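Chain X:
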Amino acid sequence: MGDLGKIIIGAITGGVIGSFLTLIANSVQARGAYRRELMRWAIETAHKDFAADNELYNTSQSENLHPWPMSSYIHYHYKFINLLDRGNVNEQTLKELLNLQKKLLETYTEYDLPQHFKRGYYKPDFK
């Protein structure tokens, strides 16, 4: 094989390797962008949910009603959107999500987080 053949084989091999690595890089980048988009949806939905609960709190005369911290809303909505994304929404996964959320909210209550909430938290009846 002459020098020209080696150059052609090298160019083809380099092109194939470069294309393969570009494909992998684009795939990783697209996955990261998709995860960021899911998080953005979760934050937007959580913000609307929090605003609705906060409005209820502001118009309520109850001393035992206050929205949970925003992070708990984001946590719930992000987990729920991931279930929807995987097509895995059923009775079992929803119960698992509610149990996970219940543990998170119990932790907020147990450690009185955050400290600036003075009127207490709404305590949902998890079944």
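Chain Y:
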Amino acid sequence: MNQWERIVDNVPEPDLFLDLGPGKRDSEAWRVQELWPNAKILGVEACDKRYNGLKSVYPGDLLYAAVDESEGEAEGYIGGRHGMFKFGLEKEVKVNNHRKVSIRTTTVDILCGGHGSVFIWADIEGAELRMLKGATNTLERVLGLNLELFPQSAHKIWPSYTGERCTADQVIACLDEHDIKCIGSLPHPDMVYGDWENKNWFHDFLFVGKNA
């Protein structure tokens, strides 16, 4: 069973599909069009190059911003090779060839205000706990979340990593406070390296809310 089969088996169609970090064309939002045709799609992309590449073809509304615990502006880093936005430390620029940027921030609660049920797909490079701090109202009605997480500390995998990437255990504990349960994980389909037996690399974790 792949991750989308698992999602459809456990989560009803939401009013809103919130796509945090869509990244590239033909990613999750395009799949939602087929599986949940009545769901509104709202994407939020923090990388300027990725946003510009998506804005004319994205199958929903697309915003250029980063999702955080509060609305405002924040500094972060754009990866030179992959184009991923990360909140992180100054060392990222030298270690991983990142460029420093200043970007508008918003919250899940702001994005989801006025909508009913929500499913959140987030690929946000370690900012999951920051995102959840700005989602306290939405989490009371969320049907589910798919989060890309490291089962263990990123620093054990990449010794040079300097960002704030959180672990699955931290996120599971946070969501458990809202009665949102993790029902399993699968290796991320784009990850071709790593030791799956020891769960050393990132997985897609599916969480199901109490209203699903």
